[in-house]
């Protein structure tokens, strides 16, 4: 296994478009790191640069101790799994797994041993004689993983490998990939646009936007301490509630919204006293909007718009003036659409972001 180190890696196309703007980070030896961001943010381009499928405009890329900027993909000792399974339809599962090894000239006994080991690891033993057309989507994806696994590379690169599967299969394959990584301890870089996939699979996550790295941290650190407004709004489902307004302090804190609505906030919120009169973004996650008692000073009234019961919890879509909020509540006394719900924000769970550069103003 090997670490992968990026030092100010850039990709600029001939038309001037900057796809990746100076990415600098390290994937530790045996680490499972996820690149996540919206479509067009540069995450797949960055992965293809690591693989050698995309030319590096500037910067340095190391795999292990070797600089590989000008090393051909086949000589980088990496294996890549794509969104498309790209299996040979006329070959059996065993032949698909063995094909790359045979091209490399490995002896037949070594090929057979690696294929058998990969099949055992991925639960493909009973499917080795089948053709891809006889397999389910999840089985075909396991074969694609197995084809990379038999290579025994220094690092695995996975580019949205689960996006063609339905929701149930995706959840199952996430667990399989995590188990596979725990068993092998292989360095793994995984690309996805799905923030749930990123949160559940990444030991660390690189959040990208417009070719730039926004934040790198563990899943829970990103969720609890987002570095900026984009990360706060991107991670989490439902997303963090974000409101722009002017912060006022008159005994307690109040957020004055553009439409004139006033939201009382907890007096013990970790806002700086110097922010009185400052316009900023205030954020609170849906699970940190709590039911308030009647007449509670720090509570506010919101009109229930749509209620979404999802079993173990209920998402309540609300309106405060012209502003939309979502609260994540326990099931039970579900409010009816059109009714008024009194809420308060958990004081230790409020976030504030600068209006100009959108950076977080409260980070531990």
Model description:
By secondary structure, the protein is an alpha+beta fold. It has 8 helices and 20 strands. It has helices spanning 43-51, 93-103, 108-122, 137-149, 167-184, 195-201, 219-224, 229-234; strands spanning 4-12, 18-27, 32-36, 58-63, 66-67, 78-81, 155-159, 187-192, 204-209, 212-217, 241-250, 252-257, 262-265, 279-284, 289-291, 300-309, 314-320, 323-329, 340-345, 350-354. Strands 6-7-8-3-9-10 form a 6-stranded mixed beta sheet, with helices on both faces. It has a 5-stranded antiparallel beta sheet with strand order 13-12-11-14-20. Strands 15-19-16-17-18 form a 5-stranded antiparallel beta sheet, with no helix packed on it. The chain is elongated.
Keywords:
single chain; 364 residues; alpha+beta; 6-stranded mixed sheet; 8 helices; 34% strand
**Strand order, sheet with most strands:** 6-7-8-3-9-10
Q: What percentage of the residues does DSSP assign to strands (E)?
A: 25-35%
Helix coverage percent of residues?
A: 10-25%
- Largest sheet features: 6 strands, mixed
Q: Would you tell me the overall average pLDDT?
A: 91
Basic shape: elongated
Going by helix content, strand content and strand pairing, the class is alpha+beta
Number of helices: 8
Beta-strand segment tally? 20
Distance between the termini: 34 Å
**Could you tell me the radius of gyration in angstroms?**
25 Å
Order of helices and strands: EEEHEEEHHHEHEHEEHHEEEEEEEEEE
Low-confidence runs: none
Oligomer: single chain
Outline of the structure:
This protein is α+β, with helices and mostly antiparallel strands. The chain has helices at residues 43-51, 93-103, 108-122, 137-149, 167-184, 195-201, 219-224, 229-234, and strands at 4-12, 18-27, 32-36, 58-63, 66-67, 78-81, 155-159, 187-192, 204-209, 212-217, 241-250, 252-257, 262-265, 279-284, 289-291, 300-309, 314-320, 323-329, 340-345, 350-354.
């Amino acid at each position: 296994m090997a670490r992968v180190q990026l030092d100010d890696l850039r990709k600029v196309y001939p038309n001037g478009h900057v796809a990746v703007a100076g990415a600098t980070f390290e994937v530790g030896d045996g680490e499972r790191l996820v690149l996540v961001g919206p479509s067009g943010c540069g995450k797949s381009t960055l992965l293809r640069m690591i693989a050698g499928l995309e030319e590096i405009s500037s910067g340095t890329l190391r795999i292990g101790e070797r600089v590989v900027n000008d090393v051909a993909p086949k000589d980088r000792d990496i294996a890549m799994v794509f969104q498309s399974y790209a299996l040979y339809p006329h070959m059996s599962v065993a032949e698909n797994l063995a094909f790359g090894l045979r091209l490399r000239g490995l002896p037949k006994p070594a090929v057979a041993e690696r294929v058998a080991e990969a099949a055992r690891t991925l639960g493909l033993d009973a499917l080795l004689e089948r053709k891809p057309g006889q397999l389910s989507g999840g089985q075909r994806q396991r074969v694609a993983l197995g084809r990379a696994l038999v290579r025994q590379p220094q690092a695995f690169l996975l580019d949205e490998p689960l996006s063609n599967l339905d929701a149930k299969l995706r959840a199952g394959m996430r667990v399989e990939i995590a188990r596979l990584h725990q068993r092998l301890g292989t360095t793994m870089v995984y690309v996805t646009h799905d923030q749930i996939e990123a949160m559940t699979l990444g030991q660390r996550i690189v959040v990208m936007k417009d070719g730039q790295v926004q934040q790198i941290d563990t899943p829970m650190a990103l969720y609890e301490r987002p570095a900026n407004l984009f990360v706060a709004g991107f991670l989490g489902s439902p997303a963090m509630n974000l409101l722009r307004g002017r912060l006022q302090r008159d005994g307690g804190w109040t957020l004055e919204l553009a439409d004139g609505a006033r939201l009382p906030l907890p007096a013990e919120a970790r806002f700086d006293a110097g922010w009185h009169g400052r316009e900023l973004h205030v954020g609170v996650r849906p699970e940190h909007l709590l039911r308030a008692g009647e007449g509670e000073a720090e509570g506010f009234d919101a009109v229930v718009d749509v209620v979404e019961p999802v079993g173990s919890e209920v998402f309540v879509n609300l309106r405060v003036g012209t502003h939309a909020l979502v609260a994540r509540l326990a099931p039970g006394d579900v409010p009816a659409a059109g009714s008024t719900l009194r809420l308060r924000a958990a004081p230790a769970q409020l976030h504030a972001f600068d209006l100009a550069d959108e950076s977080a103003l409260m980070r531990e």
